[in-house]
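Handout, section B. The chain below has 609 residues.
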Amino acid sequence: MMNPLRLSLTASLLALLLVGCSTPTSRTPAPAASTIEREQNAIAALLDEASRAQPIRSAELRVQAARALIGIDQRDQAIAILERIDTALLPPILRFDIAKLKAGTALERQDSSQALLYLAEMPSSEPLPTAQAIELGELRAQAYQQQQNNPGELKELIKVAQLQQDPVLRQELHERIWALLGELPRAGLEHLISAGDASYYEQGWYELALNLRTSTDLTGQYNSLTAWRTLWQSHPALQLPPQAVAALLDSSVSSTRRIGLLLPQSGSLAKAASAISDGFMAAYYQAQREGQPVPEIQLLDSTLVNTPEQLINLTRTMQLDLVVGPLDKNYVNQIALATELPIPVLALNNTNIETPANLYQLGLAAEDEAQAAAQRAWQDGRRRMLMMIPETDWGSRVGQAFVHEFESLGGQIVGAVTFAEQAGLADQVVALLNIDRSEARTKRVRQVVGNRIQAERQPRNDADALFLSALPVEARQIKPLLAFNYAGDLPVYATSHLYNGSPNSLSDIDLNGILFCDLPWVIGPPSTLKLAMSQQRDDTDTRFGRLYALGADAFTLHPYLEQLRASPQARISGETGQLHLVSGSRIARDLPWARFDNGVPSLLTPASN
């Protein structure tokens, strides 16, 4: 039977001959064949030869023709040719070439199911050479990826990693495997472990991921990793660990020998800096008493070493391994603009400027609490929020942070007011709840039907909750004003500003029901460090006392900065929250929550969150 492509080519040639015969007196040279025509001629020749060749040679020629057709974007014709090949008696490598061409075409068309069917034509009883087996696994992984089938993609990549002998390429595969494991929900990971059909290599990966998922605290993760390592000593994830796991393996060892504590010793920030320094040194001495290795501390005055250039030169002169500080936001901004930092710098304030690789930021920004409040409200099912904030610079920053976070989650701010003086709080609450509109409606009704009508104030009904940022004296008035205006049941989420830091049931009884976030130092069970400092100071429970916690966490963090960068899921339990790294440089703080009951904060445990 004549091949269709050859018939088409023959017809074209015949047409040219007839045209030439009809005009004998004006013969002109035939134009050169186009690239496509030359390709088609070559393909026709391959198929013609294939029709006369033995089965294996015929299949090879048809594969060449199909590959050429794909090259000129005639994929349907290529698949048609490949589908007619009987692969039953072909050698494995040739079968693989056919399956790869068909599956590759299906994947280009986003037809992953068809691609997997093509790849399934490869018999498992006839092993492929390593290079082709790796290609086959990668194709299957790509098909599962198109289907968003993480377990299927995982299994294929784990198989491919075992075949890959190049350590660089195997490391890349391990990073891909670890990223996929991180995307799996915990329930899915537990199902893979308990299914009973995992290979040795798969089971090791699954259990490693679950062990580290079970404990998000960095110390707990290190302990879990140590236990896993005992059982899986020969597992490839231990021989070539992903970057995050490798960082955890080294997390118990600190190479920091000398730290420069860069804080102002005079000026407006000196008092706050002194508290931070006291907290830092208290954590230092506690670590020393517990037998932990501690670095040498060099005190640096940021009013004298006040430019990035001076700081960089000093780090080299003093052979510092780490700088903690500065505290001043403008100074932090200047450091953020530096093109390169020779050693890590743990700044004690935040910046919005894109930072160099070695700059980390730890602060007590009020915006963090606003974001936490937005997340908590959303998790509690609140979708439409009111907002009440003070007319101050920090109030504006808190409000903007809450709005940005809540709207990014999908929520909506349906009303907002600001307040400047206590005397105007009642009017602002009325305006926020739209009580004035309710009274105006009542007045209009009375004008129509007479003064006999009785009506209660009706607050707006389009809000799920209120976000409040206020100092204690204002907050103690706002909550009763809500009740007075028939909105006493409106849930209130607040920042820590409404709490002085020490329980006072008489003063704070009017805050009952309000939920707020604060530092573990303030509302959590007192740590050994806080108890020790409380014996020497009488201000650990004040807002000023929060600076002790900041200093303590700066010391606690210093050995783990690189580990946090390598493992975004890792957490360190600190005095200012559960600490973890976001955006590559900023230390975020997951805060505990409390509710005022009988005028006293009652810590909400994870079980009751």
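Note. The chain has a mean pLDDT of 86. Compare this with the example in section A.
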